[in-house]
Amino acid sequence: MFLNNIFQFWKGYVILYLNGFYMERFINICMRRGIRLWGIARTGKTNGIVCMSIGDFRNIRPVAYKTKTAVRIKKKCGLPILLHRYRRRYVLAAGLAALVAFIAVMSQFIWSIDVVGADHSDPAQIMAAAEKAGVRIGVFKGALKSGQEMKDIILNNTTDISWAWVYIKGTKAVVEVKESILPPAVVDKSQPCDVVAARDALIRKVTVKNGKSAVQPGDAVLAGDVIIAGTLEFENSPYKLVHAMGTAEASTWHEKTGEYKLYYETRVPTGNQKTYHTLRLFSKNVHLFFKNRIPYAEYDTIENSRELQMGKDRFLGIGLDSVTYKEMETHREPISYETAVELARRDLEEQIAKELLPGADKVAEHIKDEKIDDETIRVTLTMEFVEQIGVENPITAPPPEPEKEQTME
């Protein structure tokens, strides 16, 4: 809306009074003929107000005659009107010309840089690589390297990036990247390792693919205990280190406790709000306020950024940032004891779910609750799962034992 208003101001427009019994028909015919209208408002049974560009105003005479609608200009607005009105004020005209020239000169430089496509990569690393390629705030666009040169420099100074390109959109440089798709990890079977317990558990079943089982079903293990050993010992030969492989199915128990209220809190806006604006002029910020003071104890923050541009992708380096603080207040709604326990159970389940290993199956759960005071309850949730707890842990060969000295008799 902001940029659209700027565009309409740039072209110039008129605000019209309409009078007639067929205003809707007048508006529909204008739309069909490509005459853009906005700000449409009915002020009476046969009266209304619309806005249209100065160029379109010259084309509505046949439409007004056809629909028997009287049209009268209420107000003329926009830059062309101002230029015509103040055409004899040379100082203003010179200042306006200087402003246009200033914007034209400053638009030959880069004033903002965006990174697109860095979903898992570090944007700071990409920005640093782009700076090495010459893409930085304030650089003259004519001094930039070729697209291929910038691409090569960015790729050579980043990791996990397979493609990059720098697009120049007015005063904005957009660094678009595509991240590398890493191949799945390959198990190095030449690396000796044990299979150890990822957490405390009670063994249910061990399946050995390589190595030697160190536990039996029914054994209790602690996190880090060896389940499948990668060290094989023989009676008449030295030990051998292998890459132990297999699965360990075990019972695990998870317990979480929390305190919860017997009411539900909701935050609602009061209708009061305060907005602060900052004007961005190329690489400088001009605060349009004296002091950014938040007048509310409880609030939500809404940030909005708008940029002035010519056309779709030609940014002029001028923008307006707004920060709105909306006052909020908290309302408490009482809930039943049973509802509070159920909400607590869901929350504790979510906490436990974050600790589980992939493929965990729930076996049982037990919930315990108690009332602490008139507003608070304490809930404890215990859940039993069957999990695959085996994880590989690299091992190295122990140092050889010193040879015993033989004595001569």
Would you give an account of this structure?
The chain is of the alpha+beta class. Among the domains are: 2-83, Alpha-Beta Plaits, CATH 3.30.70.260; 112-179, Ubiquitin-like (UB roll) (Roll), CATH 3.10.20; 264-333, no CATH class. It is 22% helix and 44% strand. The protein contains nine helices and 22 strands. The strands form six sheets. Strands 11-9-15-21-20 form a five-stranded antiparallel beta sheet, covered by helices on one side. The protein has a four-stranded antiparallel beta sheet with strand order 2-3-1-4. Keywords: Membrane, Transmembrane, Transmembrane helix. This is Sporulation protein YqfD. InterPro entries: YqfD (IPR010690).
In a few lines, what is going on in this structure?
The chain has 409 residues and is an alpha+beta fold. It has helices spanning 2-11, 23-32, 54-57, 61-67, 79-85, 90-106, 123-132, 147-156, 337-353, and strands spanning 13-19, 38-42, 47-53, 70-77, 112-116, 161-169, 172-179, 193-197, 201-210, 212-213, 220-221, 226-229, 231-232, 240-241, 245-261, 263-281, 284-287, 299-310, 314-334, 361-371, 376-388, 390-394.
Largest sheet: 5 strands, antiparallel
> On the 0-100 scale, what is the average pLDDT?
85
Name the CATH superfamily assignment of the domain at 2-83: ACT domain
End-to-end distance, in Å?
106 Å
The share of residues in extended strands comes to: 35-45%
Cα-based radius of gyration, to the nearest Å = 37 Å
Helix content: 10-25%
Please identify, by name, the CATH architecture of the domain at 2-83: 2-Layer Sandwich
Strand order of the largest sheet: 11-9-15-21-20
CATH class of the domain at 2-83: Alpha Beta
Put simply, the count of helices is: 9
Shape: elongated
Low confidence ranges: none
